[in-house]
């Protein structure tokens, strides 16, 4: 009899398993083992100490920078509806483009460029009526030049070189050339003449504010008249010179230097001292004008190589006479105007008391 151990297993595998409807038939399940550790509690490792009865009660209401107190004492914010609120932290500065250094530098450069452009436009408009660029030449002086030029006006007899130096077809500035005409001394002398006139009138008890305006306007009017006469004379006589209008204005303004000295001397030596000083200043001024203008009026005519004649008349000789007459005319009118502008200031001056 053969015994096969796998036969029982084959029969049992072919059978269908029973479906258990009643759970109780299966008996009690095996109880699961109880957990060996309790659930993790993070607060167990940090024991809480007992409160100190002597300490202040703990306040959990944080109210920021506002003082502690009832809620109704806090400032209430107005209701803004759906408008966005500013939740920036305190002390936070909003971003400002104009505060950036690059923007400030650009604005500064733009402002400088705008100011430069405006200045050029203004100078161009003013240049149409007043030759500002040419006036700068006549005021390019210094203290040494002023002192030397005043000495030349009072003592011109010892001066030998009256020529004016040129640099690239332009005359050298007065500060480097004593023979060059300037407008600084004539303008300052004109202002000083008005001040001295007010001083003399005050010492004679004839001072009024209107008198100062009359003397200032009268001197200015006479200057304009003599300028017009000189320019008309040059045009009528057809004399071509290197003199410019501002040159003639400068030479005609030097007479105020002698007028001021004569009027001041009259305060000490009365009319006698006035006439003596005025006579000397007039002679010195006439000599100065003849020698200074001769270098500019006669120089072009003498250097002209053309010697032409017209109907037996030497044109060169005729032109030379016209230029010489013009020099004498200027040299004589300046002393006369000096006497006319200063006579009414000394005619009523009382003699000094002994």
In short:
The protein has 354 residues and is mainly α. Helix content is 54%, strand content 2%.
How is this structure best described in words?
The chain is mostly helical and 354 residues long. The protein has a domain at 180-346. The chain is built from 10 helices and 4 strands; from the N terminus they run ααααββαααααββα. The chain has helices spanning 6-14, 101-127, 132-138, 143-154, 184-203, 209-236, 245-253, 255-297, 299-302, 315-346; strands at 166-167, 170-171, 309-310, 313-314. The strands form 2 sheets. The chain has a two-stranded antiparallel ribbon with strand order 1-2. Strands 3-4 form a two-stranded antiparallel sheet. Strand 1 and strand 2 form a beta hairpin. Helix 5 packs antiparallel against helix 8 and helix 6 runs antiparallel to helix 10 (315-346). The chain starts with 5 loop residues before the first helix and ends in an 8-residue tail after the last helix.
